[in-house]
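User: Could you go from structure to sequence for me? I need the amino acid at each position, not a summary. Structure tokens:
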């Protein structure tokens, strides 16, 4: 399985606590979590030519993981179109935390993807589909002592499945882990992962990311997106 972790890599250059939390940046840290005998992990950032999202790279990627926040608009539209095409032809997409406002996630949803937010809250996550492959080995409930609050209403297209629900100590709730299918591609959004917190150190969160990559991996990728005239067979 070939996983590409994309991170805008902006906060890492401006806020030392981000690389203290996540040595190598969020992309580097998650890459080290996911790499295994079965999983080949690469990373790409805004600093790379064409954002590191060339046809050559995407055609050789099973699952793309996306973390963004301050630089959504710096990703050119033609690159978003290209990523979208690869999702429709089978590539999996995992959208993390503030990438809810990324161009690709908004395009997939066709909505604003707006939500309520507030820095620094305690979150309790509930696994509400324990039999889902992304929930395998994940506790029924676990707490993140410091996470950014994301609250409903979350303006997304109705998910195919809602696997995790988040509750925050301000009283808010949030659909923290949801899936969609677009064309041949599987998509998972997962809410924790604010840059100045340490959610990706949490064992349940790590398990969810590993499971999500496995779930989103296509049986077949680069499926042609055609609309052919067909002669009758019989
Ligand atoms: Zn955040």
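Assistant: Here is the amino acid at each position, in order:
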């Amino acid at each position: 399985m070939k996983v590409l972790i994309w991170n805008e890599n902006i906060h890492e250059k401006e806020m030392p606590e981000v690389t203290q939390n996540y040595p190598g940046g969020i992309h580097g840290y998650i890459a080290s979590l996911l790499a295994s005998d079965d999983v080949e992990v690469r990373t790409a950032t805004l600093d790379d030519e064409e954002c590191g999202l060339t046809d050559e790279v995407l055609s050789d990627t099973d699952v793309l993981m996306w973390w963004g926040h301050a630089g959504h608009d710096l990703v050119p539209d033609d690159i978003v179109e290209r990523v979208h095409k690869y999702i429709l032809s089978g590539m999996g997409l995992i959208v993390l935390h503030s990438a809810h406002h990324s161009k690709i996630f908004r395009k997939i949803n066709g909505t604003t993807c707006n939500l309520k937010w507030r820095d620094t809250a305690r979150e309790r996550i509930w696994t509400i589909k324990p039999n889902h492959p992304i929930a395998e080995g994940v506790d029924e409930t676990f707490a993140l002592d410091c996470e950014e609050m994301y609250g409903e209403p979350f303006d997304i297209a109705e998910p195919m499945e809602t696997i995790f629900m988040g509750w925050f100590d301000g009283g808010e709730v949030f659909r923290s882990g949801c899936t969609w299918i677009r064309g041949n591609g599987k998509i998972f959004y997962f809410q924790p992962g604010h840059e100045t917190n340490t959610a990706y150190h949490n064992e349940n969160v790590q398990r969810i990311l590993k499971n999500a990559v496995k779930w989103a991996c296509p049986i077949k990728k680069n499926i042609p997106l055609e609309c052919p005239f067909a002669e009758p067979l019989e």
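One structural detail worth keeping in mind: Helices lie at 11-14, 16-21, 25-34, 55-58, 77-88, 103-109, 203-216.
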